[in-house]
Write a structure and sequence with these properties.
The chain is α/β, with parallel strands linked by helices and 519 residues long. It has nine helices and 20 strands. The radius of gyration is 22 Å and the shape is globular.
Length: 519
């Protein structure tokens, strides 16, 4: 196995020991097994959106059962309070702010994942896994101006997946079609697709010019081409036979995910002995992102408006996948990891009643902030891990991150991590398995818009003066930095910066060292 060289640990001693621990290599934990691996990544699911995290109005029985049977983390994080950056980190084991241009991408953006660097799926494929990607991608496709009527690459297949069925960007962005492997699914060659984020293409109405045609009204933005009665970001024409039905997107993704698992578990026909390779499924759902268009069987069910309805729809998707694993007899030896790409958001461009219809539901639970923000509600998200063959059920307060899935899973399966890959990813396998109660010592969180980096060091949280989200719902509280002790102040209400100036200074230096590291 190719081993990534060990790097020195940097120590800071101010008001006790502050440490920046560097990523661990796969060699530091001998591989125990090669379980099947399923990652389920929700979109905009908040810390308080699930029953197992305290929700009482919205019902999530399948995820709650997953948490009871596995390990629920109370300090689990994505890297960023927005989607594209956090997904980039999950795939690459690299902080997204290290790569210029890693921000919320338009639907026609080029691929931002380097095809010559080892990614999470590439590492697992090299370790013997069959790899599949189903759902929201939003990491770009192609290498320049993209022709949606021809082969679409590079994309998921070029960064380590054997199969992909994806939403190219988001459901509120053009083009509103699925891409299977290298082609738009169900495309009629006689009705070619055109996409632009600069100017209107074709003669289809837009939300800006014809708001009377909308079944979901706008609150801001999202005034491009109208598809299925909903106007999107960007413009498209053609491809009518290939366009998705918003109400059935969740079911389509569940069906494709389950079909991949079924295919991947078939015995090989090339030998007389049944040979089964382990599989890796990355299922990135559309729910609970806008536009929120629940299937009729979920519409109105939650009592908390359409956002509550699509949370319950997401729970159903999880339930379908878990039931398939049980039906196929592989649930006991499958590692399931469930999380979200960022924290909760209510009004995100459509006037869908998300704010007025909460009915007492608290999407971020006890946390301050949500999607886009520098506060914990931006990146502290649900994170549940289940592996019946290895993980004892319970709750963990360890500081863990999706950034560490690359190094941790490599340590588990015996995967190779070259010296130029995943340099921010730490082997936190003992924490994920419930054997280490601490997890990371330090972690950098990212809000919307540079400069936007904050630092966690153990229970301490530093928000530098410049690191405020640009969103109006999370305005800066002043020109001075903010320091919080999350042990006693999970809601980040009491700024302790003036009381502990030495700690502020030390953490600012610590953050600079991490940011300045060459990766």
């Amino acid at each position: 196995m190719f081993l990534r060289p060990q790097r020195p640990t940097l120590l800071f001693v101010v008001l006790g020991l502050l440490a920046w621990t560097t990523p661990a290599t796969a060699a530091q934990a001998a591989p125990a097994a090669q379980p099947n691996i399923v990652i389920i990544l929700a979109d905009d699911l908040g810390y308080g959106d699930l029953g197992c995290y305290g929700a009482t109005r919205v019902k999530t029985p399948h995820i709650d059962r997953l948490a009871r049977d596995g390990r629920r983390f109370t300090d689990g994080h994505c890297t960023s309070a927005t989607c594209t950056p956090s997904r980039y980190a999950l795939m690459t084991g690299r902080y997204p702010w290290r790569r210029p241009g890693t921000q919320i991408l338009p639907g026609d953006a080029a691929l931002i994942v380097d095809t010559d660097r080892v990614t999470l799926p590439a590492m697992l494929r090299r370790a013997g896994y069959t790899t599949g990607c189903v759902g929201k991608w939003h990491l770009g496709l192609g290498s320049g101006e993209l022709d949606w009527n021809q082969e679409i690459k590079p994309g998921p297949l070029e960064v380590g997946f054997d199969y992909s069925f994806i939403i190219p960007a988001t459901v509120d962005r053009a083009p509103c079609v699925f891409v299977e492997d290298h082609r738009v699914a169900n495309l009629d060659p006689g009705d070619p697709i055109a996409v632009s984020y600069v100017r209107q293409v074709g003669d289809e109405p837009t939300g800006r010019a014809h708001p009377e045609l909308l079944r979901t009204k706008l609150s801001h933005g999202h005034d491009g081409t109208i598809v299925g009665g909903i106007s999107r970001i960007g413009f498209m024409s053609g491809g009518k036979a290939a366009r998705w039905n918003d109400e059935t997107v969740a079911d389509t993704l569940a069906e494709k995910a389950i079909a991949f698992v079924e295919r991947s578990r078939r015995p090989s026909t090339s030998t007389s002995t049944a040979v089964k390779r382990p599989f890796f499924l990355y299922l990135a759902t559309h729910d609970v992102h806008v536009p929120r268009t629940p299937h009729p069987r979920f519409a109105g069910r939650s009592g908390c408006g359409t956002r509550g309805d699509v949370i319950e729809e997401f729970d159903d998707t999880v339930g379908q996948v878990l039931a398939a694993l049980e039906r196929l007899g592989v649930a006991g030896d499958t590692l399931v990891m469930l999380s979200s790409d960022n924290g909760a958001v209510l009004d995100d461009g459509y006037a869908d009643g998300a704010v007025s219809d909460l009915a007492g539901h608290r999407p971020s639970g006890p946390l301050k902030g949500g999607k886009y923000s520098s506060f914990e509600g931006g990146t502290r998200v649900p994170l549940v891990v289940r592996w019946p063959a290895r993980i004892e059920p319970g709750v963990s307060d360890a500081l863990v991150s999706q950034l560490d899935w690359l190094a941790s899973l490599a340590a588990l399966v015996g995967g190779e991590i070259p010296s130029d890959a995943g340099l921010d990813s730490q082997n936190q396998l003992p924490a994920f398995l419930g054997e280490d109660p601490r997890g990371r010592e330090t972690y950098v969180e990212q809000a919307l818009g540079p400069p936007s980096l904050t630092l966690r060091s153990g229970p301490w949280k530093l928000i530098p003066a410049a690191a405020r989200s640009k969103r109006p719902e999370y305005p800066p509280s002043g020109a001075s930095p903010e320091l919080f002790d999350l042990r006693d102040d999970l809601g980040e209400t009491s700024n302790l910066a003036s009381r502990y100036p030495e700690r502020v200074e030390a953490m600012q230096r610590q953050l600079k060292v991490i940011v300045d590291a060459i990766h």
